[in-house]
Amino acid sequence: MATMIKISDPIIEQEEVNAVVRVLKSGTLARGEETKNFEEAFSEFCGVSHSIATSNGTTALHTTLLANGITNGEVISPSFSFAASANSILHAGAKPVFVDVNYDDFCINLDDVEKKITGNTKAIVAVHLYGQMCDMKRLENICEEHGLVLIEDACQAHGAEFSGKHAGSFGTGCFSFYATKNMTTGEGGMITTGDDAVAEEARKIINHGSTVAYDNKILGYNFRMTEMQAAIGSAQLMKINGFNAARIRNAAVLSELLSDAEGIELPAVMPGRKHVFHQYTIKVSEGKRQKVINELKNNNIGYGIYYPKPIHMQELYLNLGYKDLLPVSERLSEEVLSLPIHPRVTEDDLGRIAQCVKAAMR
Ligand SMILES: *Cc1c(COP(=O)(O)O)cnc(C)c1O
Predict the structure, then answer these.
(1) What does the domain layout of the chain look like in residue ranges?
(2) Model confidence, pTM
(3) In this structure, are strands 264-265 and 280-284 parallel, antiparallel, or unpaired?
(4) Which residues line ligand 1 (CB under 6 A)?
(5) 241-361 sits in which CATH class?
(6) Atom of ligand 1 nearest to the CA of 188
(7) 308-344 pLDDT, tens digit each
């Protein structure tokens, strides 16, 4: 049997191993220079003035909502995403208001956003799904017009750009460094912002409400990153542009190979955007997806369905009553199929993947 092609495969090399060993031997395992250095390097990468490292992407989102003063009211977010996008809204004490996504770029549908803004709306969480940013120009205008906080769930979009500006530099940005993301610290997260007050508040919230030791101003949490994670993060950050370039190259090759495949829609890269392909996601016409999956399985090729159930259809959220009201999200959950394009995937692998997809669709 041909070797397994995994859907994701973190790249941990000697630099990361050395970094962790260095930290372990230093004796400072938390709240030290490594975290500070990683935060500074990440700010430079995104083009923002502040970055605050957190324990994961979910706590970055939760903290971001609280740091922007959102503890009640409504927060608009897409249903076609990972559950953390909405769970963090509940964690903060607000109510998620689900909107649909666009069929072409999988991003938040801004016509639907405009319809769902009420007097209680506090913020919009835009998810840069699969590594491609939303229409930030129009989204910024909407937020400005209605006085809403703009939050970017950039957990899949490290290094993505809109009009040459990085993800995380438009609103308050939230990143994840989970093992499968474009760069990883195992578990980990980051908040990015250009707003001094939001940054200061976020620093308090992740550290039991204090910036000065044992002076607790507000109810906070322990959402801090460890020094080991930060050291891995700094090593990964040195390589993220190369990782992304490999993903983009692999995506282009796969799209070329699949250009004559029948019955599938290839991922679209919208003009003016840099798509960093956290996932390469095709749409397979109804009924055929399982056939493609079977073919991939038989040939030892990994795949993913992100996400098989939109958030509004999850048991936790059914009582909000959105069933049948977000048709694009519901349709996409039945059609999407992600194929491996991470930096370890080779040209031969891409050939194997394309062959399988085409064989199943014939
Ligand atoms: C990964 C992810 C998160 C959550 O990040 P964790 O680090 O796993 O907590 C949130 N939103 C999206 C879109 C993600 O992909």
Answers:
(1) 14-237, 241-361
(2) 0.97
(3) antiparallel
(4) 56-58, 81-82, 84-85, 127, 153, 155-156, 176, 178, 189
(5) alpha beta
(6) 7
(7) 999 999 999 999 999 999 999 999 999 999 999 999 9
